[in-house]
């Protein structure tokens, strides 16, 4: 934490949420740049086509659970340049692909040359029957940061364009309540927390678009028993982790309190709208019978467990294959390496998968 004056960026005056919003999504923002996310870091989607294959198998299970509807929605939420939705369409069995309506939901513009079957939107369609899949979205939903001062009071951290910080006012009402519920800060100077309320709301709104099917959020996550004492706010630029600087030059990200997101969507889906009152925003486009769908059990598991449940095979091929079919052996070896990366302890395998079935049984159970 720095003092009052800030070098280069003027006096720090904005919370991290507002500063990040402008830096990532404002005019000329980081995520509006032509190179896209893949120019700066690797997600599971970029790591291997096996990931899209597993998501395609998940979509097929959702399709079965829905009784093979005439139109099956697949929504790639926060789609980057549409890599996942393209891979899923390519991996689907032809009869399922023929019934699939594929959406990429993304703040950035549609990339040229994208498969014409993919509908590009800036927000999810109002009613989804199928699978909504959000890979590394919520960590990029901007959040404010709180830090405990010398008197033991959690204060908002203010930041200048050069990344220098100072403490602002005490954390206000709804954010303070979120901290108390999900990330209580002991009165020890310097402890920090990222206030996940905007992510809870974003996820609840996305789940609110589900008519029937499954919503999945995949991200690096933590839960109440193991919050990081100083938070996780960081930056990425050209493949490297950097200090987070809200000037549009780098990604700004923080791990996601997925347990809070799970609870937020459960509450949003099960709270009845009082008679005569306007429906909650997430339910605004829904009929009363649709709103009556309750969540049949949101569940959090690791990517390793989720991909194993989706039959992602990581076993090395038998050595005998090397002599009978060397090309197949090399392919199988590469595939095993990619599966190992997607399920690696200490890496992508530790990511959290938040599954929210809506009106169907959990297809990974
Ligand atoms: C870390 S990238 C992940 C891209 C892709 N899902 C992947 O896994 O490779 C995050 C993406 O989320 C997008 N994004 C953030 N907030 C969004 C929102 N509210 N609606 C649509 N896209 C959003 C950003 O523009 C960015 O492309």
UniProtKB/TrEMBL annotation:
Which InterPro entries does UniProt cross-reference here? NDUFAF7, NDUFAF7_sf, SAM-dependent_MTases_sf
Q: Which organism is it from?
A: Streptomyces collinus (strain DSM 40733 / Tue 365)
User: Cross-referenced Pfam families, in alphabetical order?
Assistant: Methyltransf_28 (PF02636)
Q: Name any Gene Ontology BP term.
A: methylation
* Organism superkingdom: Bacteria
Q: Which SUPFAM superfamilies match?
A: S-adenosyl-L-methionine-dependent methyltransferases (SSF53335)
Q: Does the keyword Methyltransferase apply?
A: yes
**UniProt KW Methyltransferase keyword:** yes
From the Swiss-Prot or TrEMBL record, give the protein name: DUF185 domain-containing protein
Which Gene3D superfamilies has this protein been placed in? 3.40.50.12710
The record's GO molecular-function terms, alphabetically, read: protein-arginine omega-N symmetric methyltransferase activity
């Amino acid at each position: 934490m720095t003092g009052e004056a800030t070098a280069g960026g003027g006096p720090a005056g904005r919370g991290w949420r507002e500063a990040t919003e402008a830096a990532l999504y404002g005019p000329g923002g980081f995520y509006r740049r032509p190179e896209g996310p893949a120019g700066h870091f690797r997600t599971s989607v970029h790591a291997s086509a096996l990931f899209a294959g597993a998501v395609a198998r998940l979509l097929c299970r959702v399709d079965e659970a829905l009784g093979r509807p005439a139109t099956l929605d697949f929504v790639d939420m926060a789609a980057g340049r549409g890599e996942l939705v393209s891979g899923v369409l390519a991996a689907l069995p032809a009869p399922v692909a023929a019934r699939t309506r594929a959406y990429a939901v993304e703040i950035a513009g549609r990339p040229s040359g994208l498969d014409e079957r993919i509908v590009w939107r800036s927000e999810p369609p109002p009613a989804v029957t199928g699978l909504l899949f959000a890979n590394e979205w919520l960590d990029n939903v901007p959040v404010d940061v709180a830090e405990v001062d010398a008197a033991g009071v959690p204060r908002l951290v203010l930041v200048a364009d050069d990344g220098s910080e100072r403490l602002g006012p005490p954390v206000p009402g709804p954010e303070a309540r979120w901290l108390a519920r999900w990330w209580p800060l002991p009165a020890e100077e310097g402890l920090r927390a990222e206030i996940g309320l905007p992510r809870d709301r974003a996820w609840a709104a996305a789940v609110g678009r589900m008519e029937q099917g499954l919503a999945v959020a995949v991200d690096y996550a933590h839960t109440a028993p193991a919050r990081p004492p100083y938070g996780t706010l960081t930056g990425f630029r050209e493949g490297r982790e950097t200090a987070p600087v809200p000037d549009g030059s780098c990604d700004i990200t923080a791990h996601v309190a997925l347990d809070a997101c799970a609870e937020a969507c459960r509450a949003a889906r099960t709270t009845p709208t009082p008679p005569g009152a306007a429906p909650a925003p997430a339910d605004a486009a829904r009929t009363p019978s649709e709103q009556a769908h309750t969540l049949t059990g949101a569940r959090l598991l690791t990517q390793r467990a989720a991909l194993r449940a989706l039959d992602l095979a990581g076993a090395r091929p038998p050595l005998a294959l090397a002599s009978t079919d060397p090309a197949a052996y090399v392919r199988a070896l590469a595939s095993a390496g990619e599966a190992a990366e997607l399920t690696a302890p200490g890496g992508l395998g530790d990511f959290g998968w938040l599954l929210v079935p809506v009106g169907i049984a959990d297809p990974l159970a």
